[in-house]
C-alpha cells in the first residue's frame, strides 16, 4: 500500500508541475483541445487513484474539476478566466495535499468548499466570493505563452531513486582510481605491449562509463521553466498587466543540483521584471509600445556554461533614481556619483537594500534582493550581468557553470602541501621577481603594488599557520578576486598545474575553518582542499576598502595619451621569434604531450579532452615529449598554438605601432625597447577550416577610413571572412548604392555617410557607450557588429 | 538495538560503541593535514573514492593530539551525511552483550562526560558506552570556543 501511495504522490507531483504551464496556455487558446484533454486526464487519473487509495478529499476536488472540464469539453461552458483560476486553485490544493501526504503530516484542514464553489460559480452569476476567484476579478486578458519547441513525444523513462545513481557514481569513481593505480603499477614493472593494449581498452571503457554516468546527473532546463508560465499569469493578473511570455531552450541540459540552485534567482528576476519592468497597458500605450509587455526567458549552452537570459521590453532601470537613492541612503557621495560611469551606476542595483521601486510591493521591489540574487548566483560560480535600455527594457544574463561539481581549478603549493583554488577567482599570476610587481612591508602589513595598483597581500602559509619553506625559485603571487570583496594578492610557493576538479563538499568540521570551500580527490588519491577566496580574505582580516583612484588615473592617462593599451602575452615561437598575442584570447597555457599531435589532409591537429582541435600555426612534430601550447578561444571556436616558451604578460597598444599585414601577423609593436610582431586575432581564427553558411549578401561594406590601421588589418579581414563584399574607402567613380553599408569610426564620417543616403554602422574604440544616445558599437563586439550589418542589410 | 558492540581503546580509555554506528574499522595509511584547523582534525584521508575527515578523539577529549607515529586505526562512520574517521588506539572485539547497557555509576571524569552516558559490562570490566556523533559535536564545540 505504501508503495502505491508513494507512486501516486510522485506521479501527481510530476504531472502537476508539467501541467501548470499547460493550463495557462489553454486559457490563452481555449480551442486547444489537446491541452484541455491533458488537464482533464490529470484530474481523471487523480480521481481514479485516490478512490482506490481512500483519499476522499482528493477525490472530491478532482471530481469537481472533472465535472467542469467535462462541461467545457462538451461545449456547454466557456473556459473564461474565472474558471481557469478556479481550476488552477484546485490544482494547487491537490499539490498541497499531496505534499502533506508525502510528509505524513496532517492534511491542512481548510475548507475545500470555497474552491469548489468558485469552480461552479458561473461568471454571469456575478459576485465571486471565493478567494481563488479574487485574482480573476482583475479584467486583464490572459497571458499567452509561446513555446519555441513544440512538445515532443517524451522518450521512454524509468524512475530511479537518487541514492542508486549516487552509488553508481561513487562506484565509477572508485573504478577510475583503481585504474589509475593500476596504470602506475603497470608503468613501473611491465613492458608488455599486449598487456598494455588490454589495459588501454579497459581504460577507455571506464572513461566512457564515467561520461555516461555523469549524464544521469543532467536534467532539462524545462524543469526550471515549468513554474514560470503560471507565475507570469498570476502576477500579470494581480497587477493588471498583460504579458507575452516566450520560453526558449528548454531542452538544454544542466546539472540537477544546479537547476535547484538557479530556481530562486530566476524566479526573483522574473517577478522583478513583471512588477517593475513591464508597465501597465495604459502607460505602455502612452509610451507608444504594444499593450502587452514582452518577457523572454532563454537558455542556451555556451562552452561549459549555461547562459540564461531574461529580457523584457519594460521601463528598464532608472539609474538616476538609483544614484539619488544611494546618495540619500548615505552609501555614496555626490562627488563619487558624478565620477561614476553608467555601468557603475547600474551596478548599484546590487547594493544591499537599495530599490528604485517607488514603493515596495508585495511582489518585489526591484533592487530589494538583487544583492541576494547576485550572491546566490555567484555562490554557485555564476555571473550575472545587466544590459539596461532606459525606457526600452532590461536584459539580465545569468551565466552558470554546467555542473556544480566540476570546476576548472589551479593547483597551488604552499608549505609543502597542495591546494586547489577556482580558476575563476584568479585574476592574474606573477612571479615575485617580476618588474611590474613591488612588494613593500609596513607595520606587519604587506602591500603588493602591481602596475600602480596597490593590493593587500598575504602569504597562504601565513593565513593557514604553516611554515614557509625556503625555496630557490621565485614565489608566485596571484591576484585573487572573491565574488564580493576586493581583489588581493596571495603569495604561494608555486602554481603547479591547471585541472578540471571534481569538487565535493567538505565535512562541516572542515568548513568551519572558513578558508575552505570544499575538497577534491585527484588521481593520485591524496585529498586536496579547495580554497575559498572570500574566506581567506576575511580570515586574514584584509581591509575591504575600494581603491580605484590609481587604476582610474592610469586609465585616464593612457586614454589621454590616445593609445589604448591591452594586456598581451609575450611568447617565443617554435621558430625562435618573439611575438605578442592579445591575452584575452588565450584560454589557458598548458603543456601537451607531443604524441597527441597529428596531421591529416594538410591540417595539423591535436587531440585534447577527447576532441580534435586544429593547430593553427600548423606544427605537428616537435622535439621532446611535451610542448607548451596556448589554447585560444574566440567564444565558439577553439584552437591550439604550440610555442617554444611563454615569456610574460605585457601591455601593448591596441593598434600596433607599425601596421603590417602579413599572414597571421597584424603589425609590430615596441615593448620595452624590443620589436615584437603582433599576431592578428581575426586572422588566426579566420584561418581555421570551417563551413560557414554564406548567405546571399546584397550590399557592399564600405570602410570609409581606409587609412585607419585597425579598419584595414582587423575589421576588413573579419568582414571578408563573414562573406561580405568589402570596399576600402569611398568608391571614387561608382555611385553609392542605397543597399551599401558604411562602417566608420568617427561621428563626422557617420554624418557624411548618412547624407549619401545609405545606412551607417558607427564603431567606437571604447567598450563603453559615450551616453544613452550613443548608437555606436564597440569594435570588438563581434556579435553586435555582425548583427548590425546583417540587420541593416536585411 | 541488537546489543552488538565494538570494544576498543579510545584515547586511553575502554569504550564500547554500538555496532550500528560503525561502518568499518580501517588502518589509516596516509593523512593529508588540514592547515588552519585545531588539533582535533587530524586531516583528510581517502578511502577508495571517499574522502574521510579524520578526527583525533584524544585531542577532543583530553586536548592532547595523538603523535603522528601512533596514528593507526580509525572507526569509519557516516555522521549526518559526511564520512568521518575517528582515530582509536586499538580494537579488541566485536561482541554481543545480551544484558545491554547499564546505567553509569561513580563519578565520571569531566572530560568524558559529554560523550558517555552508560556502561557495558564485558569480559569482567565496565566499558564506557560512547556515541560517535557526540565526538563530532564536541569537535565543533571545541572549534567554536
What class do helices, strands and sheet pairing of chain A give? alpha+beta
Low-pLDDT runs of chain A: 123-152, 358-368, 555-562, 691-697
SS summary, helix count of chain A: 24
**DSSP summary, beta strand count of chain B:** 11
Number of strands of chain A: 36
CATH class of the largest domain in chain A: Alpha Beta
The figure for the number of domains of chain B is 1
Strand content of chain B: over 45%
Widest β-sheet, arrangement of strands of chain A:
1-3-5-6-8-7
CATH superfamily of chain B: CheA-289, Domain 4
Percent of sequence in beta strands of chain A: 25-35%
Query: N- to C-terminal separation of chain A?
Result: 64 Å
- What's the alpha carbon Rg of chain B, rounded to whole Å? 15 Å
Number of domains of chain A: 6
Biggest beta-sheet profile of chain B: 6 strands, mixed
Give the full name of the CATH homologous superfamily of the largest domain in chain A. Histidine kinase-like ATPase, C-terminal domain
- pLDDT averaged over residues of chain B: 85
Mean model confidence by pLDDT of chain A = 76
Outline the structure in words.
The complex is a heterodimer of chains A (794) and B (145). Chain A is an alpha+beta fold. Chain A has 6 domains: 2-137, Up-down Bundle (Four Helix Bundle (Hemerythrin (Met), subunit A)), CATH 1.20.120; 162-216; 220-401, Heat Shock Protein 90 (2-Layer Sandwich), CATH 3.30.565.10; 412-551, OB fold (Dihydrolipoamide Acetyltransferase, E2P), CATH 2.40.50.180; 563-686, OB fold (Dihydrolipoamide Acetyltransferase, E2P), CATH 2.40.50.180; 700-793. Helices cover 38% and strands 27% of the residues of chain A. Chain A contains 24 helices and 36 strands. Chain A has a 6-stranded mixed beta sheet with strand order 1-3-5-6-8-7. In chain A, strands 11-15-16-14-13-12 form a 6-stranded mixed beta sheet. Chain A has a 6-stranded mixed beta sheet with strand order 28-20-21-31-30-29. In chain A, β23 and β24 (603-608) form a beta hairpin. In chain A, α1 runs antiparallel to α4 (81-103) and α2 (33-53) runs antiparallel to α3 (56-73). Chain A is globular, with a radius of gyration of 31 Å. In chain A, 34% of the residues are buried. Mean pLDDT of chain A is 76; it is low at 123-152, 358-368, 555-562 and 691-697. By secondary structure, chain B is mostly beta strands. Chain B has one domain (4-144): CheA-289, Domain 4 (OB fold (Dihydrolipoamide Acetyltransferase, E2P)). The longest helix of chain B has 13 residues, at 132-144. Chain B is globular and about 45 Å long. The termini of chain B are far apart. The model of chain B has no long low-confidence stretch (mean pLDDT 85).
